[in-house]
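Here is one record:
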Amino acid sequence: MEAFYVYLFMVGAVAAAVFEYGNRLVKVTAAPDLAFRGFKTNYLVVYSFMMAGDWLQGPYVYALYEHYGFTRGEIGRLFIAGFGSSMIFGTVMGSLADKYGRKRAALLYVVCYTLGCFTKHAPNFWVLFFGRILCGIATSLLYSAFESWVVGEHNKRGYNPEWLGGIFSQAVFLGNGLVAILAGLFSHSLVDTFRLGPVSPFDAAAIVLVIGGVIIALTWTENYGDSSESASLAESFGKAYTLIMSDPKFALLGAMQSLFEGSMYTFVFLWTPALSPNGEHLPHGMIFACFMVSSMVGSALAGKLMSLTTIKVERYMQVVFAFAALCLTIPVVVPPAKASNSDSLSLAGKLHLLAFCGFEVCVGIFWPSMMTMRSAHIPEEIRSTVINCFRIPLNFFVCVILYNVGSYSLSTMFGMCASFLGICFACQRQFAVLIHQEQAGSHFDEDQRLVAAAKLEKGSLAAEAEADAV
């Protein structure tokens, strides 16, 4: 293996460890509440189990379908089924969490994903298609129910709202970083070392998900959004739609989420052909580890940024989106070049890999920062519904990309992603302006109230003095 990969991974690992260690020192000082620490630890353990169940499957979904003898077109339709299910069925099921409970929705995630894992044993297209539908529903629940539960429970227990950012940054650091790396190595060992076949990671994922589900069932309490019996699902979506259309802040949040995640999912399909344009042999596991450790750097850096009172999340995310756009512009302006041998990267390939790791750093910053902005601005009663409404254009976009992925060149696809990230930058800039105007307006109203109170007090004192004189 080329030393460049090892050096890149080591630099990322050291940076992630340094940032996260600094964050933990700050958090221990700022949040000495033992009850809060127990609450946070419980959530992080559960979230790590849930993400492990997801990451164990990821590297072998395509490989399993290929092992069963399906064509690339059939595999593409199976992937489209998953994203389409997340867009249609997952949006509805995820939104029911507000009415019927976030804990129940989290347990439903476990059930759907576990059943989806079991379907992988059948080399039948329609059984696997049904499994993809279940996994699509589970994906929507994973990215809405758990976030809604922890925000609702955090507020219900009266903890400091500023501590939520720390929970989110550590959740991403563990679930989308460390757990992802360990799950990838473990699934690789099951298939290649123990020779249990490409279905074995899905069995392991089912076991991990069930363990996490047991912890949820035994330790979590239920919380709700809009739990009124009179509120139907249509009314919940109506409230969410009205909220998004009436307040530009919510439309901007939705646009940033859809465009960034859409670019991220597209990048997943693009990085392999971008790094091996001439069929070079790639150590996919090591490159994946480099991406995940870069994401860990980003999540740890996000925790550091959110702990600073002088830098607001609405401000630094403008820089993040601009840098992400720059990273995905590199493959557009720097054409790929043939390497000296099939086992190494060319100079252009190394530059592309560095740019991709930079983009993954932005991904690591994006998740906890976006969760923090949503927790601050989306109403509690329809939180899951609004988050799932944001995912509708995202899933539609990914389905369109998957369907047409062979119709465009790599540079065109990367250019499109970079353009979307540029739009994210513009949306974030406008979002920051709106937040600043709201805060300035509230300060102005408070000043007006204080002035009015002072005048009233002055008038009362004058009236008392006049009465004394009489």
User: Anything to note?
Assistant: Residues 3-469 form a domain with the Growth Hormone; Chain: A; fold (CATH 1.20.1250.20). The chain has a mean pLDDT of 86. The CA atoms of residues 451 and 457 lie 10 Å apart.
